[in-house]
Amino acid sequence: MQIVAGTARDGASLAELMNIACRDKRNFTPVTEQSLQALWGRNPAYASAGLLLAKNDDGTLLGATHALYDADTEKGYLPFLLSRPGDESYVWPLLLTASERYLEKAAHVTIGSPYTPLYSALEGRFQPLWGTTEMMEPVETDEKLLAFLRERGFRLRRKHLTMTKVINGGIDSPQRHREHGGEPRETRGTVLETGGTVLRETGGTVLRGNIGDQVRAKTKRTVPFVFLQGAECWQNNYDWYGATAAEEFGQPNYALNVLVAREDYHVMGHIAWYAMRQRGKAAICDLEVAKRHRRQGIGAYLVHSALAYLAERGFDEIELCTTPAESRAAYRLYLKYGFTPACAWIEMSKKLC
Fold first, then answer.
1. CATH number for position 176
2. pTM, whole model, 2 decimals?
């Protein structure tokens, strides 16, 4: 067996390996050569550079990893470490040694990061393969892989949590809402539309108009908002917390939908989601509220509006990723809206120099 540099021509065999090694992943859908080529084509600066393959003498692919630097070559990343079942004990060590050699300029290497170059977008996941909120990172039940990484000097960096909610064609009010700081008592019934009807409130009042009209939320204030889809998310003049739209959202993913609460051209907060490959499922991939607008109910308004919008369009299950240790307020908000933990995935890191 030998470790060789992979190229775009290895797409078919790599897709076959992924379909074997990852068939038990949550929400698994088959990987194709075309989906891999689309992934590599997102950023020509990376493409298949750093792709490392373990092949036996007859050319059969036994394992793979992809070693990637950040833009400053200070950090190294591995989006996955794969092998055919039963070959892990000798494939993993060779692949990891080769990847660390490739990343010799990096101060440390991380596996399972939501910010892995090429494989990430927004504040979380990019789904070129599974169409879910995980890709191929180690999850809490991957005991063999996690034990191997610990033996090789990797240590826990973060634990990320996937949460899910079944909405069954409608949504419930939050389980609890503390009434402080202007947080809304209830936002049930808020439905965002794109076809003329902008918002329907609980009391039955229907506000009509174009997207961007001002609407009265339960925050005891007027909340101007705009709904963005596809290319609009990257092509706008809003001030995204001191950044441009391109800086906020990174690589384009035109399946994206974003609800933005705003003051003129300044973004107060936003929530983003997209339809998953699995029928009837959608993923919330980003939620942020500007610091000076927190504790005013903006986050609850955004979450509820997104859930109501998705329920109106026939989605029956929603999922998202969060890091509870770093986003406590968001985690509490998701719990209030009935999201429950479904899977924990593990980010591990190792110093290289």
1. 3.40.630
2. 0.77
